[in-house]
Specification:
With 239 residues, the protein is of the alpha+beta class. The chain contains 8 helices and 5 strands; from the N terminus they run αααββββααβααα. 46% of the residues are buried.
Length: 239
C-alpha cells in the first residue's frame, strides 16, 4: 500500500482507532518509504516531538511557501504530476511523460473508495499531510523561504487523495481530523510525525496526545523516510 501521507466529532475520531494496523509502504522514486525504519519507530518519534502552543496564524499566505507545485527536484515535471505518477494506477499522459491526463486511485487512503483522475475535472487532490497553515503556526513562520518551499513540495508530505474527503480536513492536525478510513489512520499519523520530525515542527499538547493514542494501537508502526532535502534550490523564491 502506498503512503498517501465539528471539533467534538473530530475528537471522537482520534480515539476510534479500532482495526488500525501497521502498514508497509512502498512508493515510486522519491516517495516516502518505511523499509529502512525500525518497528515501533513512529510511536517513539511522536513521543520525542517538541510541545508548544499554537502560534498566531497572522501573516500566513500560501505564497509564503512559494509557487504551487514548483519543480524543486529539477526533473522537469512539476510536483503535482510527480505525485500523481507515484500514487495513481493506469496512468496516461499528455505530451510526453510528465503531464498526467488520466489515472485511477484504486483505493483512496482517506475514504477507501476508488477514485478516477481526469485532468481538468479531477476528483483527486494532492494533500499536504501536514497542512501548510498548520506548519506555519508551529514553526514555519520563522523559517527562511527555502525551507518553506521544500516542505510544500516534499513527496514525504504529499499524497493523492479523494478531493471531497480531503476538503473536510482543512488545516487540521491529528487532534482535530483523521481519515474516515480507520485502517489508514496509523499510516497517516506516522506520516505526520515523520514530516514534523524531519522539519523540526512542534506539536500542541493535544496533538501529541492524539498521535500517541493512535500509534499505541499499532505499536509496530514504522516511521516513513525519504523525500527531498529540507531546503529548496536557491533559484526558487517565495513572497
Amino acid at each position: 500500500m502506498r503512503l498517501r501521507g465539528g471539533v467534538a466529532a473530530a475528537v471522537v475520531m482520534v480515539f476510534a482507532v479500532a482495526g488500525c494496523k501497521a502498514e508497509t509502504t512502498t512508493t515510486g522514486s522519491g516517495g516516502p518509504e518505511e523499509t529502512g525504519g525500525a518497528s515501533g519507530a513512529a510511536l517513539s518519534a511522536a513521543k520525542s516531538l517538541t510541545v508548544k502552543g499554537r502560534a498566531p496564524k497572522t501573516g500566513y499566505d500560501r505564497d509564503r511557501f512559494g509557487t504551487a507545485w514548483a519543480d524543486t527536484d529539477s526533473n522537469d515535471c512539476d510536483t503535482r504530476d510527480d505525485i500523481l505518477k507515484r500514487d495513481l494506477e493506469d496512468v496516461k499522459f499528455t505530451r510526453g511523460r510528465c503531464k498526467v491526463s488520466y489515472g485511477v486511485l484504486e483505493s483512496d487512503p482517506y475514504s477507501g473508495k476508488e477514485v478516477t483522475y481526469r485532468r481538468g475535472r479531477s476528483q483527486v487532490d494532492i494533500d499536504h499531510v501536514v497542512a501548510l497553515s498548520d506548519a506555519w503556526q508551529k514553526g514555519a513562520k520563522y523559517w527562511d523561504a527555502g525551507k518553506r518551499i521544500a516542505l510544500a513540495n516534499d513527496p514525504l508530505n504529499l499524497i493523492a487523495v479523494d478531493a471531497s474527503t480531503n476538503r473536510s480536513k482543512g488545516d487540521g492536525d491529528t487532534a482535530t481530523w483523521l481519515p474516515p478510513n480507520k485502517r489508514y489512520r496509523c499510516t497517516y499519523v506516522a506520516a505526520q510525525v515523520a514530516v514534523k520530525k524531519k522539519y523540526e515542527l512542534w506539536v500542541t499538547a493535544a496533538e501529541k496526545s492524539a498521535m500517541e493514542k493512535v500509534l499505541s494501537g499499532c505499536p509496530g508502526q514504522k516511521l516513513p523516510t525519504g523525500g527531498n532535502p529540507t531546503a529548496a534550490p536557491p533559484r526558487f523564491r517565495a513572497d
